[in-house]
Design goal:
By secondary structure, the chain is an alpha+beta fold. The protein is built from eight helices and nine strands. Helices cover 50% and strands 21% of the residues.
Amino acid sequence: MRRFSFIKGNALYALVPLLFMIILTNGCATVISGKTQQMTFNSEPAGAKVTISGRQIGLTPITTVLDRKKDQVLVIEKEGYKPVTMQLTTSLNSWFWGNILIGGLIGSTTDGITGSVNEYAPSQYFVPLTPIEEKKANLEINKKIFAMMNYDKLVKELFTEPGEYTKAFIILMGVEEGKEGVVINKMRDIAKTTNNGLVFAEKVTVISTN
């Protein structure tokens, strides 16, 4: 029984150098952390396409596994929104220093080749997307506010002679030169059918010059 214990103990001691050699040749970071890392991508709104260095990953929200590499470029894009492009930031994997102490030059070189020396930080990304039509939407709101706030003055000018309020609204509408008369006539027709500033504003801001 004592002999068996002795053999078993010797076998365990024999495994230590073998394990040491595996770490030495493969690199600490590669063995401990692996060559890949779990990453999560989300956006507002969801359903945006995620592309990593030209390779489409899927739609947000998504959790995936990426190879640990430097200079990976993330692109988040969704129809109707401005695409967002950024570089995935990496930091030096803490196990790399253990690798330098234990594995020396051989181990550190291995980690450099496999990419395990790199660690993505952060590992979770949340990207708010900006609507492409945001400026246009703000302009539409400004048109409605102007027409509603100056309803009485606009109506008065429409039934007498177009003045500063009418001209200012024409400019705000972005009416092409030479088509001012068409828009003014349409505004006058709308004014005849409503006595409410809010309804008037809703209708005149969608006037077409066609």
